[in-house]
Amino acid sequence: MQSRIVQMSVLIVLAAAAIVCYVMFSPDLKAAIEKEDISAVKKMIKNGADVNAKNQYGFTPLHLAAKYGDYALAKMLVDKKADVNAKSFDSALLAGRTPLHFAAGKDGNMPIVNLLLENNADIEAEDKFGLTALHHAAMSNSGDMLAALLEKGVNVAKGAKDKKTALHFAVSKKSLRAAEILIKKGAPVNAKDSAGFTALHTAVINDDREMITLLMDKGAKADETDNNGDTALHIAVAKEKNDAAEELLKRGAPVNFPNAAGRTPLFDAVFHKDETFCKLLLGYGADPEFKDQRGDTPISELETFNKPAMLELLRKKRAKSGDPAKDAADDKEKDMLIKKTREKFLKEINKQDQ
Predict the structure, then answer these.
(1) Where exactly are the structural domains of the chain?
(2) How confident is the model at residue 38 (pLDDT cuts 50, 70, 90)?
(3) What local confidence, expressed as pLDDT, does residue 271 receive?
């Protein structure tokens, strides 16, 4: 009789343990996280489920709370000692993200961001792409979020794996306020990403005149080049961004600056057979006889196209003065500029390879 009682007691203990394990590590909780079912997750956590349970992608309930801005759930999880620095995995785009990455990437999520930071969330934690909370905040277009993170001492100059800084992301999202805040806090305006693009190059691609004005007012250099030796003006003309080109030229962008191939922005205008850009560039002193490294000029290239009106336009703007001595000096100056640009380009490439 006594042995039967012992057996029954053991069975009861084992059953209770099984129930506890099921509640704590329930596949239902993982499924609820997978479905992003907040109410189901809350209910299971209240009933004792594991606060650090992960679904197949490594997302915990705290990731979910941060993503959806559910402060009550986040507070409950943190109070139950949820891992504030848990990282997701096995996801093409979201791998390596902590709850802070999600919270910072959502405008209006400051209460959760503060909660996480107060509980030792790593403000410099990087996701799969090397993005920190600051990068995500810059992409969310949230000035308040950026200001708060910067106040906490996050590195404003830090680049992701592709070397893009938070300023690159703010500019790409056309967030003037975010860009202003970052620059005010010391973001390097001429920092380059892995393609050699500065924030100014990025603003040009967006044809964002206001952003170009801000960046150049704050020290962005119009003669900074990308990995092809292209300046922001080269990009503006090549991508046919009229507003950007006008603003750059108005602010003194070098119109005859050659890229790594010795080609000026006018070559791009000719390539696109764009008479509007040709007129714009010529009006700011573009040289239609500038020779690239192969010895071609905008005029010689245009002669191969059936564009007589454009060809006449360029011929009227020939840069030769008629004075042999002056023309020879001008040609020497152009050759020196091409050589100097080429040397700068090679130096930049060698620096990246080191």
Answers:
(1) 27-128
(2) confident
(3) 94
